[in-house]
Amino acid sequence: MSITSTVRERAAPLAVSVRGVGRSFAGATRHEPERVVLRGIDLEVAAGEIVALIGPSGCGKSTLLREVSGLDAPTVGTVSIGARPVTGIDLRCAVAFQEPRLLPWRTIEKNVSLGLPRGTDSVAGARRVAELLKLVGLSESTALRPRQVSGGMAQRVSLARALSRGPGVLVLDEPFGALDALTRLRMQDLLLDVHSAEPATILLVTHDVDEALYLADRVVLLGQDPDGPSGSSIRRIIRVPGSRPRDRGDADLAHLRAELLDGLGVNSHHQTTTASTARDFR
Ligand SMILES: Nc1ncnc2c1ncn2[C@@H]1O[C@H](COP(=O)(O)OP(=O)(O)OP(=O)(O)O)[C@@H](O)[C@H]1O
Prior knowledge:
The protein is of the alpha/beta class. Helices cover 32% and strands 22% of the residues.
Protein backbone atom coordinates (compact mmCIF):
# COMPACT_ATOMS: atom_id res chain seq x y z
CA MET A 1 0.00 0.00 0.00
CA SER A 2 1.61 3.28 -0.97
CA ILE A 3 0.93 6.33 1.10
CA THR A 4 1.19 9.96 0.16
CA SER A 5 2.60 12.35 2.69
CA THR A 6 0.30 14.09 5.11
CA VAL A 7 0.54 17.45 6.81
CA ARG A 8 2.40 16.71 10.04
CA GLU A 9 0.77 18.10 13.12
CA ARG A 10 2.94 16.19 15.47
CA ALA A 11 6.09 16.33 17.52
CA ALA A 12 9.44 15.27 16.08
CA PRO A 13 10.57 11.73 16.98
CA LEU A 14 12.23 11.60 20.40
CA ALA A 15 15.12 9.51 21.69
CA VAL A 16 14.43 7.09 24.53
CA SER A 17 17.01 6.44 27.21
CA VAL A 18 16.63 3.53 29.62
CA ARG A 19 19.29 3.58 32.33
CA GLY A 20 19.82 0.96 34.99
CA VAL A 21 16.15 0.02 35.01
CA GLY A 22 14.96 -2.76 37.27
CA ARG A 23 11.44 -3.77 38.25
CA SER A 24 10.43 -6.07 41.09
CA PHE A 25 6.96 -6.98 42.27
CA ALA A 26 5.99 -7.83 45.84
CA GLY A 27 4.91 -11.44 46.44
CA ALA A 28 1.17 -12.14 46.43
CA THR A 29 1.30 -12.89 50.18
CA ARG A 30 3.55 -11.75 53.00
CA HIS A 31 5.36 -15.08 52.84
CA GLU A 32 6.09 -15.01 49.13
CA PRO A 33 9.41 -13.44 48.15
CA GLU A 34 9.64 -10.38 45.99
CA ARG A 35 9.83 -11.25 42.30
CA VAL A 36 12.52 -9.56 40.21
CA VAL A 37 11.27 -9.21 36.64
CA LEU A 38 13.77 -6.77 35.09
CA ARG A 39 17.34 -6.12 36.15
CA GLY A 40 19.96 -3.61 34.95
CA ILE A 41 18.33 -2.64 31.65
CA ASP A 42 20.36 -0.07 29.70
CA LEU A 43 19.08 0.86 26.26
CA GLU A 44 19.51 3.98 24.15
CA VAL A 45 17.02 4.28 21.31
CA ALA A 46 17.74 6.99 18.74
CA ALA A 47 15.02 9.40 17.60
CA GLY A 48 13.14 7.78 14.72
CA GLU A 49 14.65 4.35 15.29
CA ILE A 50 12.54 1.15 15.29
CA VAL A 51 13.56 -1.30 18.03
CA ALA A 52 11.93 -4.70 18.43
CA LEU A 53 11.94 -6.47 21.81
CA ILE A 54 11.77 -10.23 21.80
CA GLY A 55 12.15 -12.79 24.56
CA PRO A 56 10.45 -15.78 26.15
CA SER A 57 6.90 -15.41 27.47
CA GLY A 58 6.83 -13.73 30.87
CA CYS A 59 10.39 -12.34 30.65
CA GLY A 60 9.20 -8.75 31.12
CA LYS A 61 8.84 -7.28 27.62
CA SER A 62 5.47 -5.64 28.33
CA THR A 63 6.77 -4.47 31.70
CA LEU A 64 9.64 -2.68 29.97
CA LEU A 65 7.21 -1.01 27.55
CA ARG A 66 5.14 0.10 30.55
CA GLU A 67 8.20 1.71 32.11
CA VAL A 68 8.88 3.62 28.87
CA SER A 69 5.30 4.86 28.49
CA GLY A 70 4.97 5.74 32.18
CA LEU A 71 2.12 3.27 32.77
CA ASP A 72 4.37 1.77 35.45
CA ALA A 73 7.40 3.06 37.34
CA PRO A 74 10.70 1.18 37.63
CA THR A 75 11.85 0.08 41.07
CA VAL A 76 15.32 1.39 40.23
CA GLY A 77 16.77 3.35 37.34
CA THR A 78 15.32 5.99 35.05
CA VAL A 79 13.65 6.28 31.67
CA SER A 80 13.90 9.52 29.70
CA ILE A 81 12.10 10.61 26.57
CA GLY A 82 14.06 13.34 24.86
CA ALA A 83 15.87 15.13 27.65
CA ARG A 84 13.05 14.77 30.21
CA PRO A 85 12.57 11.85 32.60
CA VAL A 86 9.33 9.88 32.45
CA THR A 87 7.53 10.40 35.77
CA GLY A 88 4.01 9.15 35.02
CA ILE A 89 1.75 8.57 32.02
CA ASP A 90 3.63 10.50 29.37
CA LEU A 91 1.75 12.31 26.64
CA ARG A 92 4.83 12.29 24.41
CA CYS A 93 4.37 8.54 24.09
CA ALA A 94 1.39 6.70 22.55
CA VAL A 95 0.65 3.02 23.15
CA ALA A 96 -1.20 0.39 21.10
CA PHE A 97 -1.88 -3.17 22.19
CA GLN A 98 -2.64 -6.56 20.67
CA GLU A 99 -6.37 -5.89 21.21
CA PRO A 100 -7.42 -2.64 19.51
CA ARG A 101 -9.43 -1.49 22.59
CA LEU A 102 -11.97 0.55 20.61
CA LEU A 103 -15.19 1.96 22.02
CA PRO A 104 -17.89 -0.20 20.38
CA TRP A 105 -20.58 2.48 20.39
CA ARG A 106 -18.41 5.08 18.64
CA THR A 107 -17.70 5.30 14.91
CA ILE A 108 -14.21 4.62 13.56
CA GLU A 109 -13.75 8.35 13.04
CA LYS A 110 -14.78 9.13 16.62
CA ASN A 111 -12.53 6.40 18.01
CA VAL A 112 -9.55 7.97 16.27
CA SER A 113 -10.46 11.47 17.41
CA LEU A 114 -10.40 10.26 21.04
CA GLY A 115 -6.60 10.20 20.78
CA LEU A 116 -6.28 13.88 19.80
CA PRO A 117 -4.56 16.06 22.38
CA ARG A 118 -7.02 17.78 24.72
CA GLY A 119 -8.01 21.21 23.48
CA THR A 120 -7.41 20.47 19.79
CA ASP A 121 -9.39 22.86 17.62
CA SER A 122 -12.34 20.95 16.13
CA VAL A 123 -11.63 21.88 12.50
CA ALA A 124 -7.92 21.03 12.82
CA GLY A 125 -8.86 17.84 14.71
CA ALA A 126 -11.29 16.68 12.00
CA ARG A 127 -8.66 17.36 9.35
CA ARG A 128 -6.03 15.43 11.29
CA VAL A 129 -8.36 12.45 11.82
CA ALA A 130 -9.20 12.40 8.11
CA GLU A 131 -5.47 12.43 7.26
CA LEU A 132 -4.74 9.58 9.63
CA LEU A 133 -7.63 7.49 8.37
CA LYS A 134 -6.32 8.03 4.85
CA LEU A 135 -2.83 7.08 6.00
CA VAL A 136 -4.09 3.72 7.31
CA GLY A 137 -6.39 3.15 4.31
CA LEU A 138 -9.71 3.63 6.09
CA SER A 139 -11.11 6.73 4.41
CA GLU A 140 -14.11 4.76 3.19
CA SER A 141 -14.91 3.32 6.62
CA THR A 142 -15.09 6.38 8.85
CA ALA A 143 -18.78 5.98 9.76
CA LEU A 144 -18.60 2.26 10.60
CA ARG A 145 -18.62 0.94 14.15
CA PRO A 146 -15.90 -1.43 15.45
CA ARG A 147 -18.14 -4.53 15.18
CA GLN A 148 -18.57 -3.82 11.45
CA VAL A 149 -14.84 -3.98 10.63
CA SER A 150 -12.28 -6.82 10.43
CA GLY A 151 -9.55 -7.44 13.01
CA GLY A 152 -6.94 -5.90 10.70
CA MET A 153 -9.08 -2.80 10.15
CA ALA A 154 -9.67 -2.45 13.89
CA GLN A 155 -5.93 -2.63 14.46
CA ARG A 156 -5.43 0.12 11.85
CA VAL A 157 -7.94 2.27 13.76
CA SER A 158 -5.96 1.64 16.93
CA LEU A 159 -2.75 2.72 15.16
CA ALA A 160 -4.42 5.88 13.80
CA ARG A 161 -5.74 6.71 17.28
CA ALA A 162 -2.24 6.31 18.74
CA LEU A 163 -0.81 8.60 16.05
CA SER A 164 -3.52 11.21 16.54
CA ARG A 165 -1.76 12.33 19.70
CA GLY A 166 1.27 13.27 17.56
CA PRO A 167 3.59 11.14 19.69
CA GLY A 168 7.37 11.42 19.65
CA VAL A 169 7.47 7.76 20.72
CA LEU A 170 5.13 4.96 19.68
CA VAL A 171 5.02 1.87 21.90
CA LEU A 172 3.44 -1.20 20.34
CA ASP A 173 2.80 -4.32 22.44
CA GLU A 174 2.37 -7.27 20.07
CA PRO A 175 0.29 -5.09 17.75
CA PHE A 176 -0.30 -7.78 15.11
CA GLY A 177 -0.29 -10.82 17.40
CA ALA A 178 -3.99 -11.59 16.97
CA LEU A 179 -4.12 -11.22 13.19
CA ASP A 180 -4.04 -13.93 10.53
CA ALA A 181 -0.69 -14.44 8.78
CA LEU A 182 -1.52 -12.54 5.57
CA THR A 183 -3.12 -9.56 7.35
CA ARG A 184 -0.10 -9.48 9.59
CA LEU A 185 2.31 -9.16 6.65
CA ARG A 186 0.17 -6.35 5.23
CA MET A 187 0.12 -4.58 8.59
CA GLN A 188 3.90 -4.79 8.81
CA ASP A 189 4.15 -2.98 5.46
CA LEU A 190 1.54 -0.48 6.59
CA LEU A 191 3.52 0.23 9.75
CA LEU A 192 6.62 0.93 7.66
CA ASP A 193 4.60 3.27 5.41
CA VAL A 194 3.27 5.04 8.50
CA HIS A 195 6.77 5.31 9.91
CA SER A 196 8.02 6.90 6.67
CA ALA A 197 5.15 9.40 6.67
CA GLU A 198 5.25 10.11 10.43
CA PRO A 199 8.62 8.94 11.75
CA ALA A 200 8.06 8.46 15.49
CA THR A 201 10.56 6.42 17.48
CA ILE A 202 9.02 2.93 17.73
CA LEU A 203 9.46 0.31 20.44
CA LEU A 204 7.68 -2.86 19.51
CA VAL A 205 7.21 -6.17 21.32
CA THR A 206 6.73 -9.20 19.13
CA HIS A 207 6.97 -12.98 19.44
CA ASP A 208 7.67 -13.26 15.75
CA VAL A 209 11.39 -13.28 14.97
CA ASP A 210 10.74 -12.69 11.26
CA GLU A 211 8.56 -9.69 12.06
CA ALA A 212 11.29 -8.25 14.29
CA LEU A 213 13.89 -8.64 11.54
CA TYR A 214 11.61 -7.20 8.88
CA LEU A 215 10.63 -4.09 10.82
CA ALA A 216 13.41 -3.14 13.18
CA ASP A 217 16.72 -1.30 12.95
CA ARG A 218 17.79 -3.28 16.02
CA VAL A 219 16.38 -6.33 17.76
CA VAL A 220 16.81 -6.58 21.52
CA LEU A 221 16.68 -10.03 23.07
CA LEU A 222 15.53 -9.98 26.70
CA GLY A 223 15.83 -12.96 28.98
CA GLN A 224 17.10 -14.52 32.15
CA ASP A 225 20.81 -15.24 32.38
CA PRO A 226 20.84 -18.89 33.55
CA ASP A 227 23.99 -18.24 35.57
CA GLY A 228 22.99 -14.79 36.82
CA PRO A 229 20.72 -13.41 39.54
CA SER A 230 16.98 -13.58 38.92
CA GLY A 231 15.37 -11.06 36.59
CA SER A 232 15.63 -10.52 32.86
CA SER A 233 18.37 -8.44 31.34
CA ILE A 234 19.37 -7.65 27.77
CA ARG A 235 21.02 -10.81 26.44
CA ARG A 236 21.80 -9.59 22.94
CA ILE A 237 21.27 -6.61 20.65
CA ILE A 238 21.33 -7.28 16.93
CA ARG A 239 21.59 -4.54 14.33
CA VAL A 240 19.62 -5.58 11.27
CA PRO A 241 21.53 -4.88 8.05
CA GLY A 242 20.09 -3.24 4.96
CA SER A 243 17.52 -0.53 4.57
CA ARG A 244 13.77 -1.03 4.65
CA PRO A 245 11.72 -2.43 3.04
CA ARG A 246 13.82 -5.57 3.40
CA ASP A 247 13.64 -8.69 1.33
CA ARG A 248 11.86 -11.20 3.56
CA GLY A 249 13.88 -14.01 1.99
CA ASP A 250 17.28 -12.33 2.45
CA ALA A 251 19.96 -14.91 3.36
CA ASP A 252 21.53 -12.50 5.91
CA LEU A 253 18.20 -12.32 7.71
CA ALA A 254 18.00 -16.13 7.79
CA HIS A 255 21.36 -16.12 9.52
CA LEU A 256 20.18 -13.55 12.08
CA ARG A 257 16.93 -15.46 12.58
CA ALA A 258 19.00 -18.52 13.49
CA GLU A 259 21.03 -16.43 15.92
CA LEU A 260 17.92 -14.99 17.58
CA LEU A 261 16.18 -18.35 17.81
CA ASP A 262 19.35 -19.73 19.35
CA GLY A 263 19.19 -16.94 21.91
CA LEU A 264 15.59 -17.93 22.62
CA GLY A 265 16.69 -21.49 23.25
CA VAL A 266 15.21 -22.89 20.05
CA ASN A 267 17.09 -25.40 17.93
CA SER A 268 17.91 -22.94 15.16
CA HIS A 269 19.21 -25.37 12.56
CA HIS A 270 15.90 -27.20 12.55
CA GLN A 271 13.94 -23.95 12.77
CA THR A 272 15.65 -22.23 9.86
CA THR A 273 15.06 -25.19 7.61
CA THR A 274 11.41 -25.40 8.67
CA ALA A 275 10.07 -21.94 7.90
CA SER A 276 6.56 -22.59 9.15
CA THR A 277 7.78 -23.42 12.63
CA ALA A 278 10.32 -20.60 12.67
CA ARG A 279 7.52 -18.06 12.91
CA ASP A 280 5.77 -17.06 16.07
CA PHE A 281 8.02 -18.48 18.72
CA ARG A 282 6.50 -18.21 22.17
N1 LIG B 1 1.49 -5.52 38.32
C1 LIG B 1 2.12 -6.69 38.46
N2 LIG B 1 2.15 -7.32 39.65
C2 LIG B 1 2.82 -8.48 39.83
N3 LIG B 1 3.47 -9.12 38.84
C3 LIG B 1 3.48 -8.54 37.62
C4 LIG B 1 2.81 -7.31 37.37
N4 LIG B 1 2.99 -6.97 36.07
C5 LIG B 1 3.74 -7.96 35.53
N5 LIG B 1 4.03 -8.89 36.47
C6 LIG B 1 4.83 -10.11 36.26
O1 LIG B 1 5.98 -9.77 35.54
C7 LIG B 1 6.35 -10.84 34.69
C8 LIG B 1 6.60 -10.30 33.31
O2 LIG B 1 5.36 -9.94 32.72
P1 LIG B 1 5.30 -9.28 31.28
O3 LIG B 1 3.86 -9.19 30.91
O4 LIG B 1 6.11 -8.05 31.26
O5 LIG B 1 6.05 -10.38 30.40
P2 LIG B 1 6.10 -10.54 28.82
O6 LIG B 1 7.50 -10.87 28.47
O7 LIG B 1 5.52 -9.35 28.16
O8 LIG B 1 5.16 -11.80 28.62
P3 LIG B 1 4.33 -12.31 27.34
O9 LIG B 1 5.34 -12.52 26.28
O10 LIG B 1 3.73 -13.59 27.80
O11 LIG B 1 3.33 -11.25 27.02
C9 LIG B 1 5.23 -11.86 34.75
O12 LIG B 1 5.61 -12.92 35.57
C10 LIG B 1 4.10 -11.10 35.37
O13 LIG B 1 3.29 -11.96 36.16
